[in-house]
Amino acid sequence: MNDNSLPLRTGVGIVVLNSKKQVFVGKRKDNPTDKWQMPQGGVDQNEDLLSAMKRELAEETSIVSIKIIKELKEWLQYDLPKELLGKIWGGKYRGQKQKWFFVKFLGSDNEININTKNAEFIEWKWVEMEKLPDLIVPFKKKIYEKILSELKKIN
After folding, report:
1. Is residue 41 included in any domain, yes or no?
2. Got the DSSP string for 98-153?
3. pTM over 0.90
4. Under 8 Å between Cβ of 43 and 49
5. Nearest by Cα to 66 from 22, 17, 110
6. What is the pLDDT of residues 133-148, one digit of tens each?
7. DSSP structure class, residue 34
8. Number of domains in the chain
9. Is residue 3 assigned to a domain?
10. DSSP classification of residue 80
11. Of 38, 10, 7, nearest to 22 (Cα)?
12. Strand pairing of 95-105 and 8-17?
């Protein structure tokens, strides 16, 4: 299905939990259908994973008041569907391998601002964790199912 000669992009993903154990999700501005995702992004050259996670979270949501709960041991990965190959990331990658972090949001909702310099979300909300796999684009669903199973272990 996908061009396996292309490498996977290295990225991070962030599960942000509020005090009610709800999860932060945003609606992407480049895919404004009713699909929502958690903050995620690429790791810059010579950047460690923890720094990348904090930078991506701040860039996409303005959230900085966090406490790290857990880092998933294994990498989670997905391949892009055929119709997106060559269109995303300048056509350099076939998908992404991600290190996921679970964090507790220590601030209040007024800290959250998605209207950032390079805004990726047009809307955001808190959702019950069980809804995660139903909100995401189909090619990332397995990752969200794995995250949900991990969430149930820490809650």
Report:
1. yes
2. EEEEEEEE-S-GGG-----TT--EEEEEEE-GGGHHHHS-GGGHHHHHHHHHHHHH
3. yes
4. yes
5. 17
6. 999 999 999 999 999 9
7. S
8. 1
9. no
10. P
11. 38
12. parallel
Residue type, 96: Q
Range of the domain at 85: 8-154
Mark 98-113 as b/e (b = at least 16 C-beta within 10 Å).
bbbbbbbbeeeeeebe
- Mean pLDDT computed over 25-47: 91
The first and second tokens of residue 55, run together, are 């930078």
Q: How many CB atoms lie within 10 A of CB 46?
A: 6
- Side chain identity, residue 118: N
Other CB atoms closer than 10 Å to residue 91's CB: what's the count? 12
CATH code of the domain covering residue 132 = 3.90.79.10
1 domain residue, yes or no: no
A 10 A CB-CB count for 154 gives 12
Residue 36 predicted with pLDDT over 60: yes
Closest CA to 98 of 40, 153, 51: 40
Single-letter amino acid, residue 3: D
Question: CB-side exposure of 153: number of CA atoms within 13 Å?
Answer: 11
